[in-house]
Amino acid sequence: MEHVTHTAKPTPSEAEQSALKRLMTGQGSRSDAKVIRMLVDCCGRYGCVYTRPSKTSPGMKECPGWCNALEVYDKQRAARDAAASNSPESKTGKLARDERAALQALEREKAGTKDALALMLLSDKCAKDGCVSKDDTEGICPGWCATAHQAWDAWWL
Hints:
Layout: H1 14-24, H2 30-47, H3 66-84, H4 97-107, H5 113-128, H6 144-156
């Protein structure tokens, strides 16, 4: 008979907890999502509370909600993609040509001063409509604040 060993119960590090908080507030980045996907993978390997064969099986006894953080991020990403494609469902409406160009420059890691400023103004425009991440309104945060910070860091550093 083969003996199955289980890994230790996954507990998020300080960096992972920060990434979780950013994802849950709609301010997460791709790197935050990647970190949390790894954490979710550890949860699944240890024994997800929902996929365990029985309550007596080893694994998580309560759901830590890490999958929920990824769902928030995926919705946020969809909201950003809707805005980038000028979809009418976008919270901030259609993106201007400069805003789309700035997003593309950021993706290519070639964001300059003009791109950083365009994304900061986009973040301000979104905040004036009611910032979802600050619970001022209902809806999905497209994450323009985090995008503006990324552009600033990319330009400045």
